[in-house]
Design goal:
Elements: H1 23-34, H2 37-41, H3 43-49, H4 56-81, H5 85-92, H6 97-127, H7 137-145, H8 161-179, H9 182-209, H10 214-222, H11 232-245, H12 252-257, H13 266-299, H14 310-324, H15 328-362, H16 366-384, H17 390-420, H18 424-434, H19 441-468, H20 478-501
Helix pairs in contact: 1-9, 1-13, 1-15, 3-13, 4-5, 4-11, 4-13, 4-18, 4-19, 5-6, 6-8, 6-15, 6-16, 6-17, 6-20, 8-9, 8-15, 8-16, 9-13, 9-15, 10-13, 13-14, 14-15, 15-16, 17-19, 17-20
């Protein structure tokens, strides 16, 4: 596809945004986004802490009543209105544009700190060869990152050389992929990395299951605690895992869906992505707990005494396992290599949301939009995070952008679509037009009632915990938590509203035909299904008839 927008009949130009070559490319890209660091280092501990094998029940309920329905919602908005998050939400209803910019800003924050974790994983892949952390992985991680902790966290620009170098390499690789475009960059990378990730992780799981004590770990992981199902917190945890894992409400799936051909099976694709993501999480749980079972046996303690999550699991617990396990170097390279691949495909999807938004807003070419977005993100990320304050900054931003960014945006978007715009009938009909899995009232119930209810409860519980805690978050200084936590979260929404009020330039994609030269669908009308629209809106050749590209 050329860089200039081709002229359509009547002299109007078509938006030149790029596109996936087909459904398979989209599915690989979507799985690449969904399968990230949280699948490997968050799900196993969440499942173990919330009923073990019994957690699978609320997890599946959450997947089917919130994860997949919200995935369908993102797909429908992006695919029908053929734009990035701000453009698609604006075309849905003019006043809803702020939701799209809110999602873009969420991705900006996540992108700048996500690169740091990938950089650490790159370093640790190399360190695994000679188990450079020795007998004390915790002390080594502290000396490697030189991270300030607790009350010592402050604004500091003392750089950590090896981390600075790898963060820069992560961003160089990201920009190269992004400049190649939607199909040749985003999709092709996922189509190579995701199969490679699965193969590597299967080898890792098999190797971990052969370790002494592995089945003790698996027994601890899968043994059901049915009494836990009576605890509402377990159900909230299940929904929370699904929200964070499936990349809903980031603007990612919405943006990816806008690159699809018009006759794509959206609901069938959503089920493939949703269940593939969950299957990988289960695989990760098997691998992680097999390794933790070995560690518990080697140290003569219970499995519960070695369970950890997040950074503690990845960079402290697993290095300890690698140091003691036979063939530990192979386990280390596979584990940290998997983190790099999973993290990189997710980072690409996060940056794509921002690139697509600026490409649509200013009518830029792919290369210009990538450099215009990528260079500032690279500078901010490399200036702030490979420093002694990097870990504390990452920890604070991650907690607030997840709880008050992603959860908040998901809550607002479901309420806006269901009750304010009353756009579910239009979106339902769009999904059903070519979808192999028909949706109806159950989808209304999930999107309009179950999802916002759970999201609201999660937000309320998080706020209560943060405000009533005896100490500040992670014992960081109060001013640090306020600036990079509360103030950042409020700024995302505020700046998003301001950006939505700014006019779109004449060269933007707002008034252009879509990439196929078709008129873009009109705004959703309250309570109106597509079948009830006037005949002129459903004639052959329009987006409403879902003409092939």
């Amino acid at each position: 596809m050329s860089e200039s927008s081709p002229a359509a009949p009547g002299g109007r130009k078509s938006a030149n945004r790029g596109a996936f070559s087909g459904r398979s490319a989209f599915i690989f890209a979507a799985i690449g986004s969904a399968v990230g660091l949280g699948n490997i280092w968050r799900f196993p501990a969440v499942a173990y802490d919330n009923g073990g094998g019994a957690f699978i029940l609320p997890y599946l309920v959450a997947l089917l009543t919130a994860g997949v329905p919200l995935l369908f919602l993102d797909y429908a908005i992006g695919h029908r209105w053929r734009g990035s998050a701000p453009l698609a939400w604006r075309r849905f209803r003019r006043w809803a544009e702020f939701i799209g910019w809110w999602q873009v800003l969420i991705c900006v924050i996540i992108a700048v700190y996500y690169a740091l974790i990938i950089a650490w994983a790159m370093n640790y892949t190399v360190f695994s060869v000679d188990t450079r952390w020795g007998d004390d992985p915790a002390a080594f991680f502290g000396s490697f990152t030189q991270a300030l902790g607790g009350g010592d966290v402050t604004i500091a620009f003392d750089y950590v050389g090896p981390v600075l170098l790898t963060v820069a390499l992560v961003w160089i690789a990201t920009l190269v992929v992004m400049t190649l475009g939607v199909q040749n960059g985003v999709a092709r990378t996922a189509m190579i990395f995701i199969p490679l990730l699965v193969v590597m992780f299967i080898i890792l799981v098999v190797r971990a299951m052969l370790l002494p004590g592995a089945f003790t770990g698996l027994d601890a992981f899968f043994r059901p605690n049915w009494a836990a199902l009576l605890n509402p917190g377990v159900w909230v945890a299940a929904y929370g895992q699904i929200f964070f894992s499936l990349s809903v409400a980031f603007g990612i799936m919405l943006t990816y869906a806008s690159y699809l051909k018009k006759k794509t099976d959206l609901t069938g694709s959503g089920l493939v992505v949703g269940f593939s993501n969950s299957a990988f999480e289960l695989l990760a749980g098997i691998g992680v707990f097999s390794a933790l079972g070995f560690m518990a046996q080697a140290q003569g303690v219970e499995v519960k005494d070695v369970v950890d999550a997040g950074i503690g699991l990845a960079f402290i617990a697993f290095p300890a396992i690698i140091g003691e396990a036979p063939g530990g170097a192979l386990i280390g390279v596979l584990f940290f290599g998997s983190l790099v691949l999973a993290g990189f495909t997710s980072l690409i999807s996060i940056v794509e949301v921002v690139v697509a938004a600026f490409q649509d807003k200013f009518g830029l070419s792919r290369v210009a939009a990538t450099l215009g977005v990528g260079i500032p993100l690279t500078l901010v990320s490399t200036i702030l995070f490979p420093t002694t304050m990097g870990l504390g900054l990452l920890d604070t931003l991650d907690n607030w952008v997840n709880q008050y960014g992603i959860v908040g945006a998901a809550l607002v978007s479901t309420i806006a679509v269901t009750y304010v715009a009353r756009g579910l009938p239009t979106l339902r009909d769009h999904l059903n037009a070519k979808g192999s899995f028909p949706i109806g009232r159950w989808w209304y119930l999930c999107v309009g009632l179950i999802a916002p209810l759970v999201l609201g409860i999660s937000l309320a519980l998080t706020t209560k915990d943060l405000l009533t805690a005896e100490t500040t978050y992670s014992d960081y200084p109060a001013w640090f938590v306020f600036v990079f936590g509360w103030l950042m979260a409020m700024a995302l929404l505020g700046v998003g509203i301001v950006l939505s009020l700014l006019p779109w330039p004449s060269r933007s994609h707002l008034q252009q035909l879509d990439s196929d030269g078709d008129e873009v669908a009109p705004e959703a009308q309250p309570g109106r299904s597509l079948d009830a629209e006037p005949a002129q809106h459903v004639t052959a050749g329009t987006p409403h008839a879902l003409r092939s590209s």
